[in-house]
Amino acid sequence: MKVPRDRLIDRVKGVVFNINLVRASLTNDITNQHSPNLPTQECSMKSKDNFENRPARENYLVFGKPDLRREEIDEVIATLESGWIGTGPRVEKFEENFRSYVGARHAVAVSSCTAAMYLSFLELGIGAGDEVITSPFTFASTANVVIHAGATPIFVDIDRRTKNIDPAHIEQAITPNTKAILPIHYAGRPCDMDSILDIAKRHGLYVVEDAAHAIGAEYQGHKIGTLGDITAFSFYVTKNVVTGEGGMLTTQNAAYADNIRLKSMHGLSKSAWNRFSKTGNTRYEVVTPGFSYNMTDIQAALGLPQLARLESNLRRREAIWRAYDEAFQDLPVYLPAPVPSTIRHARHLYTLLIKCDLVDITREEVTIALAKENIGTGVNFISLHLQPYYRDMYHLSPGDFPNALFASERTLSLPLSSALSDGDVEDVIAALHRILSRVRLKNRIQTVD
Ligand SMILES: Cc1ncc(COP(=O)(O)O)c(C=O)c1O
Asked: Which residues pair with 206 in a beta bridge?
């Protein structure tokens, strides 16, 4: 992607700054918790906010902009005009297309990834007295559902480079009460599934995967969604495929799929479509106390065209990712870890870690400065062990998970979506260069600007 001439000034400043002052002293090598060079304390130094008044762009670039086109609009209108907007033929088609894309035996569409994970734990009989090992560096719902199922989340630290659960810590956390491992494929990067599946097999544990970020990801030639006992995906508004709210679970086990589908629709023996369609029959039985966790045809209408375009969307995400990697390599940030050829990254979140222990700016200051430049950002995540509920309920201290703490204090997600134009990407690059080319090294060496 070409950067226009007028923006090159900002980029050149950044490069000069880095060549002269940072390159020699900073490394992009990010190692795990025991490195003495990587402090884990809160980044608190303030930078001088003397950015130029004119923002990098006129209008606000929203973080996680969905890629919705004419096909989605037409499909939603057709659904509205069809006379049936509830769970029906479009959901069935979406499930089938998703199942076939992933290569799983079964797919069940639900109202969210959270619902998918919750129903999975119920189906696997995981509840009171049981423990589920997971990563704290995740969204709230990953651990919330464990609690709703009646079980206890047991956190173990992440790998500092990949931000995924570190299998080396999983085995140490296993007790007689452990029933499952719940890995999160952070940002769309598959976890070390060989090690996780091996540990699960040796200890007789279930593996339920949180693949909210990982639609399209592959591990050693297998799509995520075909490896663990049950895998949960999200179609939340910022995801690679969006349906407003929505989720899907995949499994190789027919009984799991049937029971979960039943539970997602109030525990009725027949779905509403099977009762109200022309060939349906209105009689039904309540066979289990279920939930209202079903997906609607309006949601499926949004998802179907995006699923059909997913591969080309992933290629676009990959191109943006490469442009960011190239543009930011001399800035005081840790870039996302390179991806080995054995995995395919779903490129859901482009997350940098700001080297705020070495330069005079905090992550919060960078996000505020980017907002002033009209660039939206996300923070994925503030580790759950730092959140009031989890901290207090499980008596957790910040230092219990040094790598999750390290990432929490520095992580910053930039806009990444197949809906971004080249101009949008250039704006993000120019804005981050403008901001980070003016920070000072903490040892008070003057920057060039
Ligand atoms: C890692 C992770 N897990 C689970 C979820 C929950 O997904 P949903 O909103 O579809 O329930 C999210 C949502 O952003 C997430 O990032």
From this structure: 180
Q: How far is CA 230 from the centre of its chain?
A: 18
Phi, psi angle pair for 218, to nearest 5°: -135, 150
Given the residues 13, 163, 223, 239, select the one marked as catalytic: 239
Ligand 1 atom having least distance to the Cα of 239 = 14
pLDDT tens digits, 27-53: 556 766 533 333 333 333 233 334 457
Distance 239 CA to ligand 1 centre (A): 9
70-308 belongs to CATH 3.40.50.1220: no
Residue 18: its pLDDT value, please?
A: 44
Lowest-confidence region among 51-55, 179-183, 252-256: 51-55
- Domains of the chain: which residue ranges? 5-60+311-436, 70-308
Task: Report which residue type is found at 71.
Answer: E
What's the token pair of residue 229?
């006992």
Least confident of 30-39, 71-80, 87-96, 348-357: 30-39
Q: Is residue 233 lining ligand 1, measured as CB closer than 6 Å? A: no
pLDDT tens readout for residues 416-440: 999 999 999 999 999 999 999 888 8
Separation CA 121–CA 100 (nearest Å)? 24
- Catalytic-residue membership of 93: no
For residue 80, give the DSSP letter. Answer: H
Where do we find the tokens 């040892």?
443
CA atoms within 13 A on the CB side of 295: 37
* Model confidence, pTM: 0.90
At 287 the three-state DSSP class reads: coil
What would the mean pLDDT of 361-382 be, rounded to a whole number? Answer: 97
Say yes or no: do domains 5-60+311-436 and 70-308 share a fold: no
Whether 236 and 258 have beta carbons less than 8 Å apart is answered as no
Q: How far apart are CA 15 and CA 31, in angstroms?
A: 25
Topology of the domain comprising 5-60+311-436? Aspartate Aminotransferase, domain 1 (3.90.1150)
Find the helix or strand (DSSP H, E) in which 411 lies. strand 411-414
Rounded-to-integer distance, Cα 59 and Cα 377, Å: 14
